[in-house]
Amino acid sequence: MEDLLRYGYFDDEQREYVIDRPDTPLPWINYLGTDAYFGIVSNTAGGYSFYRDAKLRRLTRYRYNNAPLDVGGRYVYVRDDATGDYWSPSWQPTPERELDGYECRHGLSYTKIGSARNGIRAETLYFAPLGETLEVWRVRVTNERTESAEVSLFSAIEFCLWDAQDDSTNFQRNYSIGQVEVVDEVIYHKTEYRERRDHFAYFACSEPLAGFDTQRESFLGAYRGWDRPAVVEAGAAKDSIAHGWQPVGSHHVRLALEPGETREVIFVLGYAENPKDDKFDPPGSQTVNKTRVRPVIERWLRSETVEKGYADLRAYWDGLLGGLSVTTPDGDTDRMVNIWNAYQCLVTFNMSRSASGYESGIGRGMGFRDSNQDLLGFVHILPERARERILDIAATQKADGGAYHQYQPLTKRGNNDIGDGFNDDPLWLILGVAAYLKETGDLAFLDEPVPFDNEPGSEAPLYEHLRRSLRYTLDRLGPHGLPLIGRADWNDCLNLNCFSDTPGEPFQTTENASGGVAESVFIAGLFVLAAKELAGIAALRGQDGEEVVYRAAAEKMAGTVTEHGWDGAWFRRAYDFYGNVIGSGENDEGQIFIEPQGMCVLGGVGLEDGLAARALDSVAERLATPHGIVLQQPAYSGYRIELGEISSYPPGYKENAGIFCHTNPWIMIAETMVGNGDRAFDYYRRLNPSAREAISEVHRCEPYIYAQMIAGKDAPTHGEAKNSWLTGTAAWNFVAITQWILGIRPDFGGLRIDPVLPGGWPGFEAVRSFRGATYEISVRGTGRVTHLLVDGERVEGNLIPPAAPGAVVRVEAIATA
Q1: How many Cβ atoms are within 10 Å of 493's Cβ, its own excluded?
Q2: How confident is the model at residue 811 (pLDDT cuts 50, 70, 90)?
């Protein structure tokens, strides 16, 4: 790939991506927070903050699809009080002010942005401390001149009125309800919203204030934007108090700096709730309990607290990333596995698909399918949180085994706006639980009581939820014996239950599981995989009879796929409402799809009779491009109502023959299953963000994390990425490279070392924590592992039984071609 313009570089030692010019092709973002308080921050300080739920507990306001895209965020203005010149250290929102130097360092749950202008340098560190419901902005201002300087700092945020959906639509009400209170120079945002929530936000500063503002129009001025606030221009705050309209928070601090002097100013933005039994502030009083929150504010306005909080955050990530590290012949692989892919897996686990530069935090909560897949790349990092998430997901399952497609993270209730009928959803719960059990060996987890649909009194053991997940598919089979697709399977845009009662009449859409007969070969492949996993779980519980039943169900479905899902050179995709085949050479467009080629092989279909290898050859011949594997070919050239949303996209974008990166790792894994390490690793590098850094002008999205999709070969912008950060691509690529190409794979019976490496590699080294023990692994040679040397003792095969917690185990894997 030809080297084009770069916007930064990796600092592997600091585990940071350094952006040295602010005009990146798109906003390149990072995330603050690790548990309950979160924020999005771009390389120019754009973004917003929320507590637990980006829809229902939004602290600060942000406008998507704005022009420029990234407007509204955590802004700091620096003003030279002698000349009136002002600018922002983050470039935005004052991009017309030329900077003498700029640097953004995106690290693991923190970001530093700094720049200089006319001899004044300012840098802001943004992070959310561990265990707190707040974020810190540590601003350091340095006078690099030879004479003293008088400068002003202005902070600026815009408060959201909590419910982000209502905040952006219900202006006839919202313009009247904004309320703030300023006490002892702390700005409290206390707007109540419909129900009395008894919560509030606060914004505080470590330095004595020259003034403050809480009304947006007072701060910006009439008909002005964030690029030229009237208060900053004038150099004096107005001490405005918001009564309705648009409440904001801004502090004004004056600093006198000697030559070479650096001053530190700390801003703290946080969230707090009044307890239900608070005798000081009874429910509905529209007051804030300053007595409780003031000690927290004062503690985090101290430099030593901030320094320790920042150090603790970095140490936290040292511990998390220490669970798996690799040293391979490929630096891009090492960088992604050891740092950025693992980091993205944690962020995606936290966010699901709710809040990014492309997900507004309003329309989607946590996904049933999504979150189970996210577990696959996360469970080794924090298994206890994976356990908690599985219980949350399972509790939204319905009694018939079906699932709400999404649920809200705050309420943990199924999202009725999205509903159910995505017939693949229940099967992913089995895969998520299996991944947890393989990592931890925690069989008692299966007996954990979990309700159905969060209804009290409906509790059943988690294992029963898995049984019903499998039964859900078996109870919904179509004319060919393949699973009914329902509203959709993994591909939400493939909506095949469209029909017309009368020829020539408009089509109707059947979105529930029982009202349509369209069938999915993809779900069939997923069922085979899930049934085998459930059989393995049954065997661990000593339920041999159930194991036999599940393995028989898998074998029967595999036979059905071979009979009705094979098209001669690849696996078909589906059958529509009328029984017409989709993903076949019989079709004029959409002849071959990626999903069944990956998932059927993952389930083991076609491995013994050569169908799997033939299907993967078809992928290489017909779907692979230099930027990744497209979803289907040929692209649909126009809208086809009987196929649903998939054909509404222009050719080459999203589900219509785009490179939907989530599916590519399935093919990587499938290639390792047929023993083709060269092709598997080649596909891996085509998507690897670090390997694509040199083409940032083409790729456009962040070069340190995966995107959901890349424009396919039918698109005018082939190679351009969209929808970065929150995607199952993160977990699946991590699984593909670590568990299948490098082959370090947890299993029910221990840790399996089964690499399928590219031919040019002499081997690699790895350190893996597993069930409390540490494994120092050395792989030598290219080929399949025939035996292991475990602490010098020969072990046949490639499975290491779990060692005692605390043990350090030295493993040599001997691979032969």
Answers
A1: 17
A2: very high
Where helices occur in 567-676 by DSSP H, the ranges are: 594-602, 611-622, 664-673
What pLDDT digit, counting tens, does each position of 251-292 carry? 999 999 999 999 999 999 999 988 765 544 444 444 566 778
- Residue pair 435/372 in contact (Cβ under 8 Å)? The answer is no
Is 492 one of the catalytic residues? Answer: yes
Number of residues assigned to the chain: 817
Out of 332, 334, 492, 678, which one is annotated catalytic? 492
**Cβ–Cβ < 8 Å for 43, 29:** yes
Long-range CB contact pairs, 607-613, < 8 A, 24+:
607/673, 607/674, 609/562, 611/562, 611/566, 611/571, 612/670, 612/673, 612/674, 613/674
- Encode pLDDT of 372-382 as tens digits: 999 999 999 99
* Higher per-residue pLDDT: 516 or 553: 553
Tell which phi-psi region holds residue 15, choosing left (phi > 0), alpha (psi between -120 and 50) or beta.
Answer: left
Q: What is the pLDDT of residue 150?
A: 97
In terms of C-beta density within 10 A (0-12 exposed, 13-18 middle, 19 or more buried), how is residue 641 classed? middle
Give this prediction's pTM: 0.94
DSSP notation for 691-737: TTGGGHHHH-S-TTS-EEEE--TTSTTTT-EEEESSSHHHHHHHHII
Q: Which of 1-5, 194-198, 221-225 has the lowest mean pLDDT?
A: 1-5
User: Taking Cα atoms as reference points, which of 273, 250, 61 lies closest to residue 163?
Assistant: 61
* DSSP-based three-state secondary structure for 291: helix
CB atoms within 10 A of CB 700: 21
